[in-house]
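Task card 7
Instruction: Convert sequence to structure tokens.
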Amino acid sequence: MSPATEEAKPLMPSPLSPPGAEGPELAEPPGFRRLRLMVTVLTATLTIGMMVIAATLVIRILMEEGPRPLSAPVAAEVAAPEGEAIIAVGAGPGALSLLTRDEAGVERLRTYHPETGAEIGVTLIRRSPGG
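Output:
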């Protein structure tokens, strides 16, 4: 064969050809193996970390009991004073609270025993000017 018809071999193999198929072998740079190991370790660490976070979330969600029911007072009735309108009602573990307003606009926080319905205390509420 003449040199003109002979195909010239490329110095670098084609990216589509399998490694070592054509051309001289290229040596890895000195730090390339270490870099590959560091990337592999980082990928494994990231994967394990994400699995731990996902498992923690699942465990926390499954162990959650949900909202606790409000312990409502068991008194059959509570007597609010005549002439006072009830504005708000609140219930706690040891008391039932009513916010009332009379005809003069005076507001009171009345506290009742949750089981008997007896009045425990009265707190006068004074609004600051402009509030």
